[in-house]
Specification:
Elements (H helix, E strand, L loop, with lengths): L1 E2 L2 E2 L3 H6 L6 E6 L16 H11 E11 L3 E2 L2 E2 L2 H11 L3 E10 L14 E8 L10 E15 L5 E13 L3 E4 L21 H11 L5 E4 L6 H8 L3 E5 L3 H11 L9 E2 L1
Parallel strand pairs: 2-13, 3-4, 3-12, 7-11, 12-13
Antiparallel strand pairs: 1-14, 4-8, 5-6, 7-8, 9-10
Helix pairs in contact: 4-5
Length: about 260
């Protein structure tokens, strides 16, 4: 197989050629609930989940971005069923993160606007890599005692300190034309990741030269970000139309010597 390549085929075929315990991180958004049109291509969820378990290394992660369609007035619950199946076949539900959209498309009907999708973090055993994103926070506390008051009470000096803390598991991104990515060609695909989402997850769960796989590569965001962050990558995409979009998008980011045979 070659790294740095999008295979134009069903991801089950690609994974059948991979050895067990091969991939460090999978990050993907599958074609769930017929929300995305894949021109009649089928989505064999259970077989794909089982194949992912075999190719993921012990300590590796799957970031599975999914939501639910609303059909006949009810959300399908597909996201929860898929999460429980991953657990059933041996993965741990390491975290249930939220991908929050700052500017979602308005919706009609008797429900609030849908602002989020789930980002399930499935681990094969304990995650081997965790590089948490942190943020600066200020807090106020009591420092050393200054003196004892006339009535015998203790008088402490209040101080303000700054420290770093891990961010929460709700990740907020703005989306849309010119925001999710600056690559105009990517918008020929109907549903693209915000690049910042992929940057955050790859930085969190991998180190340089780790191998990232996207079984539904779409417009190529996972490949582009992996390349820019010095990760090895490989992808599958069953739609020839989408492969052409991704390859055209990647031309400016990928050198001639990228492909590595393994």
């Amino acid at each position: 197989m070659k790294l740095g390549k999008i295979y134009n085929e069903d991801c089950l075929i690609t994974m059948s050629r991979m050895p067990n315990d091969f991939i460090d991180l999978v990050i993907t958004s599958p074609p769930y609930d017929d929300i995305r049109n894949y021109n009649g291509y089928s989505f064999q969820f259970e077989k794909i989940a089982q194949a992912l378990y075999h190719v993921i290394k012990p300590g590796g992660m799957v970031i599975w971005v999914v939501a639910d369609a609303t059909i006949n007035g009810s959300e399908t619950g597909t996201s929860f069923r898929q999460a429980l199946y991953f657990k059933e076949i041996g993965f741990r539900i390491h975290d249930t993160m939220i991908y929050y959209k700052n500017n979602p498309m308005p919706q009609t009907g008797k429900r609030y606007h849908q602002h989020f999708e789930y980002m399930f973090a499935f681990s094969k055993e304990t995650p081997k890599t965790f590089n948490p994103i942190s943020e600066t926070t200020k807090y106020r506390g009591l420092a050393n005692m200054k003196n004892r008051g006339k009535n015998g009470s203790l008088d402490y000096e209040k101080v303000e300190r700054t420290k770093e803390k891990k961010v929460g598991n709700v990740f907020c991104y703005s989306i849309g034309g010119g925001i999710s990515t600056k690559d105009k060609i990517a918008y020929n695909h109907p549903a693209i990741f915000p690049e910042e989402l992929v940057i955050d997850q790859i930085n969190t769960w991998t180190n340089e030269n780790d191998l990232v796989y996207d079984p539904f590569m779409g417009s190529g965001t996972t490949a582009k970000i992996s390349q820019l962050l010095n990760r090895q990558w490989i992808g599958s995409e069953i739609s020839q139309e989408y492969v052409k979009i991704a390859e055209q998008r990647l031309k400016e980011h990928i050198g001639k010597d990228l492909f590595v045979t393994i």
